[in-house]
Amino acid sequence: MGKTWRVIDTGLRSAAENIALNRALLEARQAGEIPDTLRFLRFRPSALLGYHQSAEQELDLDYCRANNITVQRRITGGGAIYFDESQIGWELYLTKDTLGCADMEQIARRVCEAAAQGISALGVEARYRPRNDIEVQGKKISGTGGAFEGNALMYQGTLLLRFDVEKMLRVLRIPAEKFSDKSISSARERVTNLADLLDQVPDLEVVKAALTGAFAREFGVSFVPGNLAAAELARYQDALAEIGHPDWVNLIDRPAADMPILQASRKFPGGLLRVSLAFDARAGRIKQVWFSGDFFVSPKRAVVDLEAALRNVQMDGVEEIIRSFFARQQADLLMLTPDDFAAVIRQAVG
């Protein structure tokens, strides 16, 4: 292991501070001011918007205010997520030269497989699940994603130590029926955490050491503990001045009425199928969809994967997306058909 990378832990911080550090480290790596770096981080309770999202459309702002949950905007795209002290984040700041490639799919596989080995070292059997999840026993324990800034890459991941599924659901602007005992139980069947798997949360130093060791083996490097450099701190202060201002959170400010939650239900030979969807009428685009009802699909997570496949897609292509999804999946629908899912969506949109 001739090459050395830096490892830093920026501790428990506010959302604005963590997002400002994202920008500072990514810009500093692009400028060649810092070495390849592994960063560990934690958040105070925060609802994090994707860069292109509107808080009014994506979050239950009344719930966030009542529960002292900070709303913040990320510098990367994607959907809204909930983050708090029950998770630990890890981030890699690398270059395309370091990786030897710029293909995000290949990068995700390499990084996630390494992270899965690190999580497995804690006493569970973790596996990478394309495109960017890590699972244990078919349940998600880590979500990841990456973004380029010129030649530099920031690849981020979370690891669920403990997790309150109900709070995660309530932070988001989703249909009220998703808060039923059955829906919350269903959500718990799709997500897991170290406390549930191990009956305890490992010491944070043990968790960090496991992930650091896995990345060291995968990339053939050794890690040297470090601190934020002067160049990073200067960039951080500049970024925080912008990201810590309300104008940053309100950068995209669209009313919830522009993206209503539409609902429909229909009885098919295969059972009762309900759908709720957030629909951008101006763009003719489905932003998010949720299926429920009285029907049988195996494996259960096929419905969750279908919901993910229908995120942020044009309404015009919904039938083809659903048919293609089930053509790729090994799912048992009994008497339901792919066109049934499309039909109830069409009914909701009207």
Describe this structure in words.
With 350 residues, the chain is an alpha+beta fold. The protein has 2 domains: 3-249, Bira Bifunctional Protein, Domain 2 (BirA Bifunctional Protein, domain 2, 2-Layer Sandwich); 259-349, Enolase-like, domain 1, CATH 3.30.390. 38% of the residues lie in helices and 29% in strands. The strands form 3 sheets. An 8-stranded mixed sheet has the order 7-8-9-10-6-2-1-11, with helices on both faces. Strands 12-13-14-15 form a 4-stranded antiparallel sheet. A hairpin with a 2-residue loop joins strand 9 (139-149) and strand 10 (152-160). The longest helix is centred in the N-terminal third of the chain and has 17 residues, at 104-120. It starts with a strand and ends with a helix. The model has no long low-confidence stretch (mean pLDDT 92).
